[in-house]
TrEMBL record:
<keyword id="KW-0963">Cytoplasm</keyword>
<comment type="subunit">
    <text>Homodimer. Interacts with FtsZ.</text>
</comment>
<dbReference type="GO" id="GO:0051301">
    <property type="term" value="P:cell division"/>
</dbReference>
<keyword id="KW-0717">Septation</keyword>
<comment type="function">
    <text>Activator of cell division through the inhibition of FtsZ GTPase activity, therefore promoting FtsZ assembly into bundles of protofilaments necessary for the formation of the division Z ring. It is recruited early at mid-cell but it is not essential for cell division.</text>
</comment>
<protein>
    <recommendedName>
        <fullName>Cell division protein ZapA</fullName>
    </recommendedName>
</protein>
<keyword id="KW-0132">Cell division</keyword>
<keyword id="KW-0131">Cell cycle</keyword>
<feature type="region of interest" description="Disordered">
    <location>
        <begin position="69"/>
        <end position="90"/>
    </location>
</feature>
<dbReference type="InterPro" id="IPR007838">
    <property type="entry name" value="Cell_div_ZapA-like"/>
</dbReference>
<dbReference type="Pfam" id="PF05164">
    <property type="entry name" value="ZapA"/>
</dbReference>
<dbReference type="InterPro" id="IPR042233">
    <property type="entry name" value="Cell_div_ZapA_N"/>
</dbReference>
<feature type="compositionally biased region" description="Low complexity">
    <location>
        <begin position="71"/>
        <end position="90"/>
    </location>
</feature>
<dbReference type="InterPro" id="IPR036192">
    <property type="entry name" value="Cell_div_ZapA-like_sf"/>
</dbReference>
Length: 117
């Protein structure tokens, strides 16, 4: 595993990236940084932990929206007479594990910086 240094909201973090996964991790970091900076720049929320949680929720909501759109597209392509999916599919075990690992990393990275004000 390769260690890379990244910055999120101006703070440096040292992250482990799987071999060949550095560019994907950099893209994820850029997306998280942009989401968190947008919330911070809105001016209402100052605590990093709250900004991180809101950014994570916004990104998860976008993911859910994307999945719902995929489900609707698949349902409209299904032969008539078959019921359409009522809800977007649940996260797979691998996706749940990835999200859990990301949350653990975020907790470690925030450390005491994530204290409530």
């Amino acid at each position: 595993m390769k260690q890379i240094e990244v910055k999120i909201m101006g703070q440096a973090y040292l992250l482990g990236a799987p071999e060949g996964g550095e560019s994907r991790l950099q893209a994820a970091v850029q997306r998280v940084d942009a989401a968190m900076c947008k919330i911070r720049d809105g001016g209402k929320i100052k605590a990093r932990d709250r900004i991180a949680v809101l950014a994570a929720l916004n990104m998860a909501y976008e993911l859910t929206d994307d999945r719902a759109a995929e489900t609707e597209g698949a349902a409209s392509a299904a032969p008539s007479g078959e019921p359409a999916a009522a809800q977007p599919p649940a996260l797979s075990v691998a996706e749940q594990a990835t999200l859990g690992a990301l949350l653990t990393r975020l907790d470690k990275a925030l450390g005491d910086d994530g204290r409530l004000l």
